[in-house]
């Protein structure tokens, strides 16, 4: 079993380059299936979720060329369309194959998605959207089967603000007849990224980034070239790690506007964050105030950074409260942090963190991707060596984690 070993106690210093966004990449790659043409995507992060998606595209018969951080997909000739099992079970975002293949062929059979276990993660709003567009949807043998004689634009109100449902409906609507209006849509930057690609392919999309998105579909979409936005969750993780270690790090290749929810909470703790056009410099000085944080859909504080932030809050004065309003039980990092000396209690959706508890290296397990990020930050500040298993979760979402942290002066290695 692979282990990540971290010898803690070194402040991070220097500059880190942020990679392309995982949550954009895993939507943009299936979006290429909508065009009978070649599409090029640049600034692709080198992470496991992207590798799995490349394998899925090859399984489907698409021509995939990879060159550094650039992928070219020619989805003109696709085969093997039913995907009830295999790679689709390995990541959450395989649900985008439903929207993409429904849009392209009017039918799809896709196994239920995998991804982080954060408690129940239903896809009822995705299904509601597909049905509104005219698809018949059945759930059999662990897979969703969709078919539509004709996809027709519709007005869809999402009962829950959902990133996945918003993007999935956009994908199918991009080739539907007429106008689709998504109300109560999610506003995450990754949604704008997908809208930019679909628009470059020929669909008409207005309102991405607001809660009403209008899509006028086009029967045939063309190929295009697109560059992925920076990963705001990877950036936030390095910002938190810089502060937690009392370091000084320039987090480069970011869109500072996307980081505002994180920057605001770090500043509230007393951490210095300086902004320039494409970078943020974070300086930690060790005396931090405890804060209350509530995760919310964008532009609220992202649930995906709640877990690493909890580790930072073990260093702050007083009691901090972290409430996850998106996932009811995203606290699988807490027991592990407590094994390292943290004093954190979970009640319902809220973690109560008693601050100023020094951490001690221990053998811990990452139960999901951001639990892994929380434990990496813990390892960086703990005394002695921390041994993290469950590294495959971390590899799903962080490009060259060890390399980037080593460049910042951390001492870590794999065994
Ligand atoms: C691949 C990807 O982009 N993953 C991100 C995406 O996940 P994902 O797209 O799965 O998350 P959603 O935005 O859909 O989920 C938000 C909330 O809505 C609920 N819900 C969602 C869909 C649905 O049909 N019914 C329903 O009840 C979920 O259980 C959750 O409580 O957004 C999450 C919220 O920012 C992030 O944590 C994930 O990193
Ligand atoms: C929850 C996450 O990913 P996924 O939705 O792919 O499981 C995440 O990136 O933190």
Description:
- The protein is α+β, with helices and mostly antiparallel strands.
- The chain has two domains: 4-19 and 230-414, Enolpyruvate transferase domain (UDP-n-acetylglucosamine1-carboxyvinyl-transferase, Chain), CATH 3.65.10.10; 22-227, Alpha-beta prism (UDP-n-acetylglucosamine1-carboxyvinyl-transferase, Chain).
- Helix content is 31%, strand content 25%.
- The protein contains 13 helices and 23 strands.
- The strands form six sheets. The chain has a four-stranded mixed β-sheet with strand order 21-22-1-23. It has a four-stranded mixed β-sheet with strand order 2-14-16-15. Strands 4-5-3-13 form a four-stranded mixed β-sheet, covered by helices on one side.
- A hairpin with a 2-residue loop joins strand 4 (63-67) and strand 5 (70-74).
- Helix 7 runs parallel beside helix 9.
- The structure holds uridine-diphosphate-N-acetylglucosamine and phosphoenolpyruvate.
- Residues 91-93, 115-116, 304, 369-370, 397 line the site of phosphoenolpyruvate.
Strand order, sheet with most strands = 21-22-1-23
Q: What is the C-level CATH assignment of the largest domain?
A: Alpha Beta
CATH third-tier fold name of the largest domain:
UDP-n-acetylglucosamine1-carboxyvinyl-transferase, Chain
Low-confidence stretches: none
Give the overall average pLDDT: 96
Number of domains: 2
Structural class: alpha+beta
CATH-wise, what's the superfamily of the largest domain? Answer: Enolpyruvate transferase domain
Percent of residues in helices: 25-40%
CATH architecture of the largest domain: Alpha-beta prism
Number of strands: 23
Shape annotation: elongated
Number of helices: 13
Q: N-to-C terminal Cα separation, in Å?
A: 8 Å
Named once each, the bound ligands are: uridine-diphosphate-N-acetylglucosamine, phosphoenolpyruvate
Strand content: 25-35%
Please give the largest β-sheet: 4 strands, mixed
Keywords: Cell cycle, Cell division, Cell shape, Cell wall biogenesis/degradation, Cytoplasm, Peptidoglycan synthesis, Pyruvate, Transferase
EC number: 2.5.1.7
Function: Cell wall formation. Adds enolpyruvyl to UDP-N-acetylglucosamine.
Binding site for phosphoenolpyruvate: 22-23
């Amino acid at each position: 079993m692979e282990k990540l070993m971290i010898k803690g106690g070194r402040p991070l210093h220097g500059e880190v380059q942020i990679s392309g966004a995982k949550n954009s990449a895993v939507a943009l790659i299936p979006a290429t299936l909508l065009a009978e043409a070649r599409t090029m995507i640049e600034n692709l992060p080198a992470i496991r979720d992207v590798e799995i998606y490349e394998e899925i595209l090859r399984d489907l018969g698409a021509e995939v060329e990879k060159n550094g951080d650039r992928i070219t997909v020619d989805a003109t000739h696709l085969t093997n369309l039913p995907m009830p099992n295999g790679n689709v079970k390995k990541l959450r975002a395989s649900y985008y194959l439903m929207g993409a293949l429904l849009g392209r062929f009017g039918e799809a059979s896709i196994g239920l998605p995998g991804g982080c276990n954060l408690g129940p993660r239903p896809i009822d709003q995705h299904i509601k959207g597909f049905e509104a567009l005219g698809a018949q949807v059945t759930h059999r043998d662990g897979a969703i089967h969709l078919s539509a004689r004709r996809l027709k634009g519709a007005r869809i109100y999402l009962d829950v603000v959902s990133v996945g449902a918003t993007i999935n409906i956009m994908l199918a609507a991009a080739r539907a007849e007429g106008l689709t209006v998504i109300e109560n849509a999610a506003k995450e930057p990754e949604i704008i990224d997908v809208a930019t690609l679909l628009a470059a392919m020929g669909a008409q999309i207005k309102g991405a980034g607001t809660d009403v998105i209008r899509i006028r579909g086009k029967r045939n979409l063309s190929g295009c070239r697109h560059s992925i936005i920076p990963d705001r969750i990877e950036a936030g993780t390095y910002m938190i790690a810089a502060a937690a270690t009392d370091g000084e790090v320039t987090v480069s290749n970011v869109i500072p506007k996307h980081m505002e929810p994180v920057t605001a909470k770090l500043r509230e703790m007393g951490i210095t964050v300086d902004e320039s056009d494409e970078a943020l410099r974070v300086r930690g000085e060790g005396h931090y105030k405890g804060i209350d944080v509530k995760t919310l859909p964008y532009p609220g504080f992202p649930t995906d950074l709640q877990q690493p932030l909890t580790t930072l809050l073990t260093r702050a004065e007083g009691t901090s409260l972290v409430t996850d309003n998106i996932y009811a039980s995203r606290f699988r990092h807490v027991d592990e942090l407590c094994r390292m000396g943290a004093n954190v209690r979970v009640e319902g959706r809220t973690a109560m963190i008693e601050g100023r508890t020094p951490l001690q290296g221990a053998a811990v397990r990452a139960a999901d991707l951001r639990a892994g990020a929380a434990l990496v930050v813990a390892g960086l500040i703990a005394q002695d060596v921390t041994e993290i298993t469950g590294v495959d979760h971390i590899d799903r979402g962080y490009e060259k984690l060890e390399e980037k942290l080593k460049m910042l002066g951390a001492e870590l290695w794999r065994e």
